[in-house]
Design goal:
It comes from Stutzerimonas stutzeri CCUG 29243. This protein has 148 residues and is of the alpha+beta class. It contains six helices and four strands. Helix content is 39%, strand content 11%. Strand 3 and strand 4 form a beta hairpin.
Length: 148
């Protein structure tokens, strides 16, 4: 059953892997069909969603225009299809693969909070303290330090 449009996908842009997928979806998604809402944004408020922030962070959630919720693999499947990536989404809809996909998603959902060490596509968004990276000393200053 196709969800009523637009489908609102609740994404976590603070997650490096999720942020990559969000960028991929943004490049091709029609906002009239797929809306992306960042649950890690400072101004995000889940009031009125009948889901709290912890639930939204545990699993990927999407909500249809009629209010029906899709989670996990189903949210991924429909968001990819609605963004025009049906070829990539197709295997997610294959019934024989479903048990394996659900198990794989559960594993990913458990591990996702521990993947923050991965490089983020927007390096600045990972830095909460200004990201002052020390400059590499020049060869001349390193040579003068050796003489001391």
């Amino acid at each position: 059953m196709t969800p009523d449009l637009p489908l609102t996908l609740y994404v976590d842009r603070a997650c490096p892997l999720c942020a990559r997928e969000v960028r991929w979806l943004e490049r091709s998604a029609d906002p009239a069909r797929l809306r992306l809402v960042d649950i890690s944004a400072a101004d995000f408020d889940p009031k009125g969603l009948d889901r709290d922030l912890a639930q939204l962070r545990r699993r990927l959630h999407a909500r249809s225009a009629s209010g029906a919720w899709l989670t996990g693999v189903d949210a991924t499947y429909w968001s990819w299809r609605l963004a025009g990536h049906g070829r990539w989404a197709a295997p997610l809809g294959w019934r024989p693969l479903r048990p394996l996909l659900l198990l794989g998603y559960q594993l990913f959902a458990v591990l996702r909070p521990h993947l923050d060490w991965l490089p983020h596509p927007d390096g600045a968004s990972r830095c909460t303290t200004g990201c002052n990276v020390p400059q590499k000393p020049s060869k001349t200053s390193a040579a003068s330090d050796d003489r001391l």
